[in-house]
């Protein structure tokens, strides 16, 4: 899989959550999200319990609340969509602070906000405690099709290549006194975008030729074999197991 690859969401640490094998954490987060989505929206107390479970995981992983909340801003577009639901949905209406809102829309907004926020929070915790390289190894260990794992690996690494090229081109423009201030500079930016595409394509070809010359034949070598003990699986699956109990209570109570 190549060398280690850090990313902005990752928070270096030595907690028990960091030490878990990546495929156990991937399976635990997926199971937790499935359980959360399966919970009836009327069981509002259940979502509070889910949030408490995630808070315990964050405490065990030594992930500060500010770090987590800052990265939850990624769901702002979904929040905006949820806010509109009570106004555009049809059905029974109710007056709230002088506004006529749809009952079904209110439940729908709550459903999107609660389940979406919990899912994003679980994903952020996973990314905060697992490096990208480990995530790719975990996907490989979970028997995801090798081609998809390779595509994800190349996408992550090539994204950094393009970002670095953009940074270099921006520095080159600024060193020549260029500063985009209006529509008259769009032509320069368009030419820069075209040059970026050509450079990225050529660099991709060079990378592929270098891989082929080193024996690449359609599959990446496995350098590290990720394994997990029964105790590690039990520790990782404690979160979705507790969530499953809450979900079943939500359907029965």
Automatic annotation (TrEMBL):
<keyword id="KW-1133">Transmembrane helix</keyword>
<dbReference type="InterPro" id="IPR012809">
    <property type="entry name" value="ECF_CbiQ"/>
</dbReference>
<keyword id="KW-0472">Membrane</keyword>
<protein>
    <submittedName>
        <fullName>Cobalt ECF transporter T component CbiQ</fullName>
    </submittedName>
</protein>
<dbReference type="InterPro" id="IPR051611">
    <property type="entry name" value="ECF_transporter_component"/>
</dbReference>
<dbReference type="InterPro" id="IPR003339">
    <property type="entry name" value="ABC/ECF_trnsptr_transmembrane"/>
</dbReference>
<keyword id="KW-1003">Cell membrane</keyword>
<feature type="transmembrane region" description="Helical">
    <location>
        <begin position="72"/>
        <end position="89"/>
    </location>
</feature>
<keyword id="KW-0812">Transmembrane</keyword>
<feature type="transmembrane region" description="Helical">
    <location>
        <begin position="43"/>
        <end position="60"/>
    </location>
</feature>
<dbReference type="Pfam" id="PF02361">
    <property type="entry name" value="CbiQ"/>
</dbReference>
<feature type="transmembrane region" description="Helical">
    <location>
        <begin position="109"/>
        <end position="127"/>
    </location>
</feature>
<feature type="transmembrane region" description="Helical">
    <location>
        <begin position="233"/>
        <end position="251"/>
    </location>
</feature>
């Amino acid at each position: 899989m190549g060398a280690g690859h850090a990313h902005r969401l990752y928070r270096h640490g030595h907690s028990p959550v960091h030490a878990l094998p990546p495929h156990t954490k991937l399976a635990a987060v997926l199971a937790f999200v499935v359980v959360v989505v399966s919970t009836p929206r009327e069981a509002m107390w259940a979502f509070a319990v889910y949030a408490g479970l995630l808070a315990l995981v964050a405490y065990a992983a030594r992930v500060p609340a500010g770090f987590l909340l800052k990265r939850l801003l990624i769901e702002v577009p979904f929040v905006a969509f949820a806010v509109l639901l009570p106004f555009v949905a049809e059905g029974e209406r109710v007056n709230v602070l002088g506004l006529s809102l749809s009952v079904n829309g209110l439940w729908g907004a709550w459903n999107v906000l609660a389940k979406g926020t919990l899912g994003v929070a679980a994903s952020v915790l996973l990314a905060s405690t697992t490096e990208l390289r480990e995530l790719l190894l975990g996907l490989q260990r979970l028997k995801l099709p090798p081609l998809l794992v390779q595509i994800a690996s190349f996408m992550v690494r090539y994204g950094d290549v393009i970002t670095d090229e953009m940074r270099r081109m921006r520095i080159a423009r600024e060193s020549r006194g260029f500063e985009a201030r209006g529509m008259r500079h769009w032509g320069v930016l368009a030419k820069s975008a075209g040059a970026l595409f050509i450079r990225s394509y050529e660099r991709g070809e060079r990378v592929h030729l270098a891989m082929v010359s080193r024996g690449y034949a359609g599959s990446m070598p496995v350098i590290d074999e990720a394994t997990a003990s029964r105790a590690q699986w039990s520790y990782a699956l404690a979160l979705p197991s507790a969530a499953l109990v809450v979900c079943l209570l939500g359907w029965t109570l």
